[in-house]
Specification:
single chain; Rossmann fold; 12 helices; alpha/beta
Length: 340
């Protein structure tokens, strides 16, 4: 990594390529990115020069939605890819990465971009979603029965935790990834398993909307603050929320297996509700089936009410990416659990 920044052509002299994006209202500052890169033994100018020479900003463009801004490339995608690349080159053992982000923010597209870009660089990477490990439809319906939001999936307790654990353990010992695939458009938007994948990977990345979330008791005062702009929790919602907290305990062994956890944190928690509506509307348009109407509104309410917002907004992580309601990156920060 001894690239001389003085050799950067004048046309590439901007050390902050995202600043050139005229669609960005608030380009994120460089200082925290420099601190993060130092953790990866990268000098900031060298790192930018490296990705400029690799044409990294043009990797796998087909996997980004139209209008994706440069801050997502330079403030999230390429730093994360650099972290993955560094892990693969510095260790002989397999590494499990995680991305935690509320629904609709763009983590699925990011995962597809990472897989395609890693292939270009010769990195052995497979991305899995926590949602791929939803229970089979009959078990899923039973597990979700009587929840106050009448959602068909999404809650802690709707996943095959034993299967996920065994899949991770098998991958750690053999490098073989064997996992189910879940299609959310099946069963009129309720979703169902749609097959299995079997592949090899040195790096595995798991993404999910409450990945890394720990059980958290919350006081009445905190609860009132959470729902100041929303209808307060009903008695049924309060009772079921306690059940969700108990279910989260079962996920802790999964979180403990994650070597590097990236948290995409919203400045405004309510943004996720709007994004989820956009996401389902797009799926309905492109695939003909999705959550809609009251079913979609109930799903949005579940996101708001099922897990304490304090828990979702303060996930213990290695790297935290803060974004605003326009999905613009505000800053990249080292988390409380980052290792060397």
């Amino acid at each position: 990594m001894n690239i001389d920044p003085l050799n950067i052509p004048k046309s590439q002299k901007s050390f902050a390529p995202w600043i050139e994006d005229k669609d960005l209202e608030n380009p994120f500052p460089e200082d925290n990115l420099k601190i993060f890169l130092a953790k990866l033994d990268w000098e900031y100018h060298d790192w930018i020069n490296y990705w400029v020479e690799k044409n990294g900003s043009d990797f796998a463009n087909s996997f980004w939605p139209n209008g994706t801004k440069k801050d997502w490339i330079w403030g999230l995608a390429l730093p994360l890819l650099s972290d993955i690349q560094q892990k693969q080159s510095s260790q002989n053992e397999r590494s499990l990465f995680g991305i935690s982000a509320l629904p609709g923010c763009g983590k699925t597209c990011l995962g597809k971009w990472l897989e395609a870009s890693a292939k270009i660089l010769g990195i052995s990477l497979k991305v899995l979603s926590l949602d791929d490990f939803y229970l089979p439809s009959n078990e899923l319906d039973l597990a979700m029965k009587d929840n106050p939001w009448e959602v068909p999936r999404g809650l802690p307790g709707s996943h095959s935790i034993d299967l996920l654990e065994s899949s991770l353990d098998n991958w750690l010992s053999s490098g073989s990834v064997n996992a189910p695939q879940f299609d959310k458009s099946l069963r009129d938007g309720s979703g169902d398993r749609s097959g299995w994948i079997n592949t090899q990977a040195d790096i595995l990345l798991l993404e999910g909307w409450f990945l890394g979330c720990h059980p958290l008791d919350i006081s009445l005062n905190q609860l009132e603050k959470e729902f100041v702009n929303h209808p307060p929790l009903t008695s049924n919602e309060k009772e079921y929320r306690s059940r969700v907290q108990n279910q989260l305990d079962k996920y802790l062994p999964i979180w403990q297996r994650i070597d590097r956890l990236w948290h995409i944190k919203l400045k405004d928690f309510t943004s996720s509700s709007h994004w989820k509506v956009e996401q389902e509307t797009q799926m309905l348009r492109t695939r003909g089936s999705a959550l809609k109407g009251e079913q979609l509104l109930s799903f949005v309410r579940m996101i708001q009410a099922s897990i304490p917002q304090e828990s979702l907004m303060n996930i213990s992580c290695d790297v935290r990416i803060e974004i605003n309601k326009e999905r613009e990156i505000l800053q990249i920060l080292l988390g409380d659990r980052i290792k060397g």
